[in-house]
Protein backbone atom coordinates (compact mmCIF):
# COMPACT_ATOMS: atom_id res chain seq x y z
CA UNK A 1 0.00 0.00 0.00
CA UNK A 2 1.21 3.32 -0.85
CA UNK A 3 1.38 6.00 1.68
CA UNK A 4 -1.49 8.38 1.42
CA UNK A 5 -0.76 11.58 -0.21
CA UNK A 6 -0.68 14.19 2.47
CA UNK A 7 -2.46 16.56 0.13
CA UNK A 8 -5.36 14.20 -0.07
CA UNK A 9 -6.13 14.19 3.63
CA UNK A 10 -9.78 14.04 4.51
CA UNK A 11 -11.18 17.47 4.97
CA UNK A 12 -14.53 18.68 6.11
CA UNK A 13 -16.73 19.73 3.25
CA UNK A 14 -16.82 23.45 2.79
CA UNK A 15 -19.63 25.26 4.54
CA UNK A 16 -22.43 26.33 2.27
CA UNK A 17 -25.20 28.76 3.01
CA UNK A 18 -28.15 26.65 4.08
CA UNK A 19 -31.42 27.61 2.37
CA UNK A 20 -34.30 28.15 4.70
CA UNK A 21 -36.81 25.39 4.92
CA UNK A 22 -39.98 26.43 3.15
CA UNK A 23 -42.16 25.28 6.06
CA UNK A 24 -39.86 26.16 8.89
CA UNK A 25 -40.96 28.96 11.26
CA UNK A 26 -38.93 31.98 10.75
CA UNK A 27 -38.09 34.25 13.63
CA UNK A 28 -38.43 37.85 12.64
CA UNK A 29 -35.22 39.66 12.67
CA UNK A 30 -34.92 42.18 15.44
CA UNK A 31 -35.77 45.66 14.33
CA UNK A 32 -32.93 47.94 13.82
CA UNK A 33 -32.61 50.47 16.58
CA UNK A 34 -34.35 53.72 15.77
CA UNK A 35 -32.18 56.41 14.57
CA UNK A 36 -31.03 58.57 17.36
CA UNK A 37 -33.08 61.74 17.72
CA UNK A 38 -31.33 64.63 16.21
CA UNK A 39 -32.91 67.00 18.71
CA UNK A 40 -35.17 67.34 21.71
CA UNK A 41 -38.79 66.16 21.66
CA UNK A 42 -40.93 68.29 19.30
CA UNK A 43 -42.90 70.98 21.17
CA UNK A 44 -43.72 74.67 21.41
CA UNK A 45 -41.36 76.52 23.59
CA UNK A 46 -42.57 79.82 25.00
CA UNK A 47 -41.14 82.15 27.52
CA UNK A 48 -42.49 82.59 31.02
CA UNK A 49 -43.78 86.04 30.12
CA UNK A 50 -45.75 84.67 27.17
CA UNK A 51 -47.19 81.89 29.32
CA UNK A 52 -48.31 84.35 31.97
CA UNK A 53 -49.89 86.58 29.30
CA UNK A 54 -51.81 83.62 27.84
CA UNK A 55 -52.92 82.55 31.30
CA UNK A 56 -54.15 86.08 32.01
CA UNK A 57 -56.09 86.14 28.71
CA UNK A 58 -57.69 82.80 29.57
CA UNK A 59 -58.72 84.01 33.02
CA UNK A 60 -60.27 87.13 31.50
CA UNK A 61 -62.16 85.06 28.90
CA UNK A 62 -63.50 82.75 31.62
CA UNK A 63 -64.55 85.71 33.74
CA UNK A 64 -66.32 87.28 30.77
CA UNK A 65 -68.10 84.01 29.98
CA UNK A 66 -69.21 83.72 33.61
CA UNK A 67 -70.49 87.32 33.50
CA UNK A 68 -72.47 86.61 30.33
CA UNK A 69 -73.93 83.46 31.86
CA UNK A 70 -75.11 85.39 34.89
CA UNK A 71 -76.65 88.04 32.64
CA UNK A 72 -78.43 85.31 30.69
CA UNK A 73 -79.84 83.77 33.86
CA UNK A 74 -81.02 87.17 35.08
CA UNK A 75 -82.65 87.96 31.73
CA UNK A 76 -84.28 84.54 31.62
CA UNK A 77 -85.70 85.00 35.11
CA UNK A 78 -86.95 88.48 34.21
CA UNK A 79 -88.65 87.22 31.05
CA UNK A 80 -90.27 84.39 33.00
CA UNK A 81 -91.60 86.84 35.58
CA UNK A 82 -92.87 89.09 32.78
CA UNK A 83 -94.63 86.15 31.15
CA UNK A 84 -96.35 85.16 34.38
CA UNK A 85 -97.34 88.77 35.11
CA UNK A 86 -98.75 89.15 31.59
CA UNK A 87 -100.75 85.95 31.97
CA UNK A 88 -102.24 87.24 35.22
CA UNK A 89 -103.10 90.58 33.63
CA UNK A 90 -104.77 88.86 30.67
CA UNK A 91 -106.77 86.64 33.01
CA UNK A 92 -107.84 89.66 35.06
CA UNK A 93 -108.74 91.53 31.88
CA UNK A 94 -110.99 88.66 30.83
CA UNK A 95 -112.59 88.51 34.25
CA UNK A 96 -113.03 92.24 34.90
CA UNK A 97 -113.19 93.81 31.40
CA UNK A 98 -116.88 94.64 31.92
CA UNK A 99 -116.51 95.78 35.52
CA UNK A 100 -116.86 99.50 34.75
CA UNK A 101 -119.60 98.88 32.20
CA UNK A 102 -121.73 96.96 34.67
CA UNK A 103 -120.94 99.59 37.28
CA UNK A 104 -122.64 102.10 34.97
CA UNK A 105 -125.58 99.74 34.44
CA UNK A 106 -126.31 99.28 38.13
CA UNK A 107 -128.22 102.60 38.46
CA UNK A 108 -130.37 101.52 35.51
CA UNK A 109 -131.20 98.29 37.28
CA UNK A 110 -131.92 100.18 40.48
CA UNK A 111 -134.37 102.42 38.62
CA UNK A 112 -136.18 99.46 37.10
CA UNK A 113 -136.43 97.68 40.42
CA UNK A 114 -137.68 100.87 42.10
CA UNK A 115 -140.30 101.34 39.39
CA UNK A 116 -141.55 97.80 39.86
CA UNK A 117 -141.64 98.23 43.63
CA UNK A 118 -143.90 101.28 43.52
CA UNK A 119 -146.04 100.07 40.62
CA UNK A 120 -149.66 99.18 41.38
CA UNK A 121 -152.93 98.80 39.61
CA UNK A 122 -153.62 102.49 40.14
CA UNK A 123 -150.23 103.66 38.92
CA UNK A 124 -150.18 106.98 37.11
CA UNK A 125 -149.36 106.31 33.49
CA UNK A 126 -147.68 109.68 33.16
CA UNK A 127 -145.36 108.98 36.09
CA UNK A 128 -144.66 105.48 34.78
CA UNK A 129 -143.76 106.91 31.39
CA UNK A 130 -141.48 109.49 32.97
CA UNK A 131 -139.76 106.81 35.03
CA UNK A 132 -139.20 104.61 31.98
CA UNK A 133 -137.89 107.56 29.98
CA UNK A 134 -135.45 108.44 32.76
CA UNK A 135 -134.23 104.86 32.96
CA UNK A 136 -133.73 104.72 29.20
CA UNK A 137 -131.67 107.91 29.32
CA UNK A 138 -129.50 106.44 32.06
CA UNK A 139 -128.93 103.35 29.95
CA UNK A 140 -128.08 105.43 26.86
CA UNK A 141 -125.54 107.52 28.77
CA UNK A 142 -123.93 104.40 30.24
CA UNK A 143 -123.60 102.80 26.81
CA UNK A 144 -122.19 105.97 25.22
CA UNK A 145 -119.46 106.14 27.86
CA UNK A 146 -118.14 102.85 26.51
CA UNK A 147 -118.31 103.77 22.83
CA UNK A 148 -121.70 102.30 21.99
CA UNK A 149 -123.58 104.28 19.37
CA UNK A 150 -126.99 103.49 17.91
CA UNK A 151 -127.70 103.14 14.20
CA UNK A 152 -131.09 104.66 13.42
CA UNK A 153 -131.03 105.24 9.65
CA UNK A 154 -134.57 106.48 9.03
CA UNK A 155 -134.55 108.48 5.79
CA UNK A 156 -130.89 107.62 5.03
CA UNK A 157 -129.53 105.72 2.07
CA UNK A 158 -129.52 101.98 2.51
CA UNK A 159 -126.04 100.78 3.51
CA UNK A 160 -125.55 96.99 3.45
CA UNK A 161 -122.56 97.38 5.77
CA UNK A 162 -124.79 98.81 8.52
CA UNK A 163 -128.35 97.85 7.58
CA UNK A 164 -130.25 94.64 7.03
CA UNK A 165 -133.14 94.99 4.59
CA UNK A 166 -136.20 93.11 5.81
CA UNK A 167 -138.39 94.18 2.89
CA UNK A 168 -138.53 96.45 -0.13
CA UNK A 169 -141.78 98.34 -0.67
CA UNK A 170 -142.97 100.96 -3.10
CA UNK A 171 -142.86 104.40 -1.53
CA UNK A 172 -144.37 107.24 -3.47
CA UNK A 173 -142.56 110.26 -2.10
CA UNK A 174 -139.48 108.50 -0.69
CA UNK A 175 -136.30 108.45 -2.71
CA UNK A 176 -135.54 104.99 -4.06
CA UNK A 177 -133.14 102.85 -2.02
CA UNK A 178 -133.67 104.86 1.14
CA UNK A 179 -134.81 103.58 4.54
CA UNK A 180 -138.49 104.29 5.08
CA UNK A 181 -138.93 102.38 8.33
CA UNK A 182 -136.61 101.13 11.09
CA UNK A 183 -137.90 97.92 12.61
CA UNK A 184 -134.98 97.52 15.00
CA UNK A 185 -132.09 99.88 15.66
CA UNK A 186 -128.52 98.78 15.10
CA UNK A 187 -125.50 99.48 17.29
CA UNK A 188 -121.80 100.21 16.85
CA UNK A 189 -119.14 99.56 19.46
CA UNK A 190 -116.20 101.91 18.85
CA UNK A 191 -117.26 102.11 15.18
CA UNK A 192 -117.45 98.32 14.91
CA UNK A 193 -120.85 96.93 14.01
CA UNK A 194 -122.27 94.69 16.71
CA UNK A 195 -125.83 94.58 15.33
CA UNK A 196 -127.15 95.86 11.98
CA UNK A 197 -130.30 97.94 11.87
CA UNK A 198 -133.28 96.02 10.49
CA UNK A 199 -135.00 98.27 7.99
CA UNK A 200 -137.56 98.51 5.20
CA UNK A 201 -136.26 100.08 2.01
CA UNK A 202 -138.06 102.14 -0.60
CA UNK A 203 -138.36 100.50 -3.97
CA UNK A 204 -137.56 102.34 -7.15
CA UNK A 205 -140.60 103.19 -9.27
CA UNK A 206 -140.97 100.84 -12.23
CA UNK A 207 -140.00 102.33 -15.56
CA UNK A 208 -142.80 102.87 -18.00
CA UNK A 209 -142.53 100.93 -21.22
CA UNK A 210 -142.14 103.06 -24.30
**Rg calc:** 56 Å
**Low-confidence runs:** 1-19, 21-26, 32-40
Determine and state the CATH class of one domain: Mainly Beta
Oligomeric state: single chain
Write the CATH fold name of one domain: Nucleotide Exchange Factor Grpe, Chain A, domain 2
| Average pLDDT for all residues | 79
Q: Let me know the CATH homologous superfamily of one domain.
A: Head domain of nucleotide exchange factor GrpE
Counting DSSP H or I runs of 4 or more residues, the number of helices is 3
Description of the molecule:
- The protein has 210 residues and is an alpha+beta fold.
- It has a domain at 148-205: Roll (Nucleotide Exchange Factor Grpe, Chain A, domain 2).
- The protein is built from three helices and six strands; from the N terminus they run αααββββββ.
- The strands form two sheets. A three-stranded antiparallel sheet has the order 1-4-5. A three-stranded mixed sheet has the order 2-6-3, with no helix packed on it.
- A hairpin with a 2-residue loop joins β4 (186-189) and β5.
- α2 runs antiparallel to α3.
- The longest helix has 49 residues, at 48-96.
- It is elongated, with a radius of gyration of 56 Å.
- The N and C termini lie far apart (177 Å).
- Residues 1-19, 21-26 and 32-40 have low confidence and may be disordered.
